[in-house]
Write a structure and sequence with these properties.
Elements lengths: L1 H6 L1 H6 L5 E4 L10 E4 L9 E5 L10 E5 L6 H7 L2 H8 L2 E6 L15 H4 L5 H17 L6 E6 L1 H12 L6 E5 L29 H11 L9 E7 L8 H14 L7 E3 L5 E7 L5 E8 L11 H9 L15 E6 L6 E6 L7 E10 L7 E6 L3 E4 L7 E10 L11 E4 L10 E11 L2 E11 L9 E5 L5 E6 L2 E5 L2 E5 L12 E2 L3 E5 L9 E5 L1
Parallel strand pairs: 1-2, 4-5, 4-6, 6-7, 7-8, 8-11
Antiparallel strand pairs: 2-3, 3-5, 9-10, 10-11, 12-13, 13-16, 14-15, 14-17, 17-18, 19-20, 20-25, 20-26, 21-24, 21-27, 22-26, 23-24
Helix pairs in contact: 8-9
């Protein structure tokens, strides 16, 4: 009973706060929490409230702030500090209200099959409609959308970052759980749940694979993740913080050992996990002695700072141009770009990647964004020349001059024996490893095939550390990849793009597998 009372505490605050109602298409009055109806597709049957500060830039950032089970959007607005921070830094806050019960009432759906599938429906699609509404109605910046939440809202934060990594720039999860922790609605209630029962333990790769399989073939930038948990939390056990850290560091290809630790305030132990350029991609806070009662005073400020939003909206100074742009690991269908970080008076929040066709002429167009100083561009045409430039953005939306130009020519298409072909794509690389995703197998024949086998050679010193959606064996440096039941049958011209694998290598070694053959 004590646990249930803790979860439902947010609901009491909701009853104390009166709200207005507006119809979609009529912008809300500034600095007032308003309810929006008819905001778009709403399969989760959710309610939407929005807070728009008086002072904001032309293209403000968007923060989706989500309550715990039994709570509401207005209740979380009243009990958290995100609205006051929005007044100070000029971003818009969406406060959704969940209506799923799962035995508790008003919980965000992180358990159903529909919610775990991209575009499957339920609460995630309703949340996307709310974001789209704010972008259309208030000019919200689609490149600066962030998620945060407490308890059930913290769970939904990690859930949305996994299923929709192309929508969110970063997230801050208070007392949440890793993505795919719940097996279904019957597994959801805390206490009786396998997820929150206190014994959940998977390997980092198993957790990371769950995220990668939520959006198969995705090769863009992943949202940065901030995690918060109280050491005395028994409703959502503190041990799940470790599982979340393992999930997101594996997704980013980072070590399980933090690159730095500190205590920004008494009782707050912070661990940071940064990439080779020093960019913090995962940040975890252990709050000593705290139970299931986060965020506490001041914590929202740290979340907004992690998002890169703690700059005044009158900042007009653009970052410097990125330098040292290089390309490496170029294959028939992709290449990996790296560059030296730009500098800014308030901090760089991300980079735009621009591409132009050919060795000259043609127009540079944006093809992606990155929160780090690297980017893997995929889906290129074999034996084709491209040029790239990069520019930086800061939290106020100022854009830097473009970098110098780097030119690449993709390799010829993957080898074929007349029946099938295999073309690898480098999804991501770091100092001592890389991920190939997808390894695209295409039926190049004139009749349907019911099975395929791909072989390739790992460079000396490289070791296969994981794979998915295929039966993989190794003999020395030779790797053999065979289809599994669901992806072996390919019609003429059909391809499978769900196969992938991860490899470790000596630090600084930039070699990649070679000699791909398909039969």
């Amino acid at each position: 009973m004590t646990r249930l009372t803790t979860v439902l505490a947010h609901a009491c605050a909701a009853a104390l706060f009166a709200v207005m109602t507006v119809v979609a298409g009529s912008p809300a009055a500034a600095a007032t929490l308003v309810e929006v109806t008819n905001f778009g597709s709403n399969p989760g049957n959710m309610r939407m409230h929005v807070y728009v500060p008086d002072s904001r830039p032309a293209s403000p950032a968007i923060v989706v702030a989500m309550h715990g089970c039994g709570g509401s959007g207005p209740g979380f607005h009243q009990s958290s500090e995100f609205a006051s921070l929005a007044d100070r830094y000029g971003f818009i806050v969406i406060y959704p209200t969940a209506t799923q019960s799962a035995g508790f009432g008003n919980c965000f759906d992180t358990w159903s099959d529909a919610a775990k599938r991209r575009g499957g429906g339920s609460d995630p699609v309703s949340l996307l409609s709310m974001i789209d509404y704010v972008e259309r109605t208030y000019g919200g910046d689609p490149d600066r959308v962030y998620a945060t939440g407490s308890s059930s809202g913290g769970m939904m934060t990690q859930h949305m970052l996994a299923v929709y990594p192309d929508v969110f720039k970063a997230g801050a999860s208070f007392m949440g759980v890793p993505f795919d922790c719940f097996a279904g609605a019957s597994d959801y209630p805390p206490g009786s749940s396998r997820c929150t029962g206190g014994s959940m333990d998977r390997t980092p790769q198993q957790w990371g694979d769950a995220v990668r399989q939520a959006y198969p073939g995705y090769s863009g930038a992943r949202p940065r993740v901030q995690l918060w948990h109280g050491t005395a939390d028994t409703l959502v056990p503190y041990s799940l913080l470790r599982e979340s850290i393992e999930q997101w560091t594996d997704v980013f290809g980072l070590s399980q050992t933090p690159t730095s630790t500190d205590s920004p305030q008494a009782g707050w132990n912070r661990s940071r996990y940064a990439d080779a350029s020093g960019t913090v991609l995962v940040e975890a806070y252990s709050i000593q002695g705290a139970g299931h009662a986060l965020p506490q005073s001041g914590m929202a400020r740290y979340a907004v700072e992690f998002f890169g939003l703690t700059t005044q909206s009158n900042d007009t100074t653009p970052p410097t141009a990125p330098s040292g742009l290089t390309a490496s690991g170029t294959t028939a269908t992709g290449t990996t770009l790296t560059w030296t970080a730009a500098t800014d008076d308030t901090g760089v929040t991300g980079y735009d990647i621009l591409r132009a066709p050919g060795a000259s002429g043609g127009t540079f167009a944006q093809v992606g964004t990155s929160a780090t100083t690297s980017y893997a561009d995929t889906g290129l045409t074999p034996n084709t020349t491209y040029r790239y430039q990069v520019r930086a953005r800061d939290a106020a939306g100022n854009v830097s001059p473009v970098s110098d130009t780097v030119q690449i020519t993709t390799q010829e298409g993957g080898p074929s024996d007349g029946t099938c072909s295999a073309v690898p794509t480098v999804q991501s690389e770091w100092g001592n490893g890389y991920v190939i995703q997808p390894l695209t197998v295409t039926n190049t024949g004139t009749s349907t095939i019911t099975g395929w086998t791909v072989t390739f050679t790992l460079p000396a010193g490289h070791t296969l550390t994981g794979s998915w959606n295929a039966d993989v064996t190794t003999s020395g440096q030779t790797v053999t990849v065979r289809n599994v039941g669901h992806n072996g049958t390919l019609a003429p011209g059909a391809a499978t793009t769900s196969v992938g694998f991860q490899v470790s290598r000596p630090n600084g070694d930039s070699a990649l597998p070679s000699g791909y053959t398909c039969a």
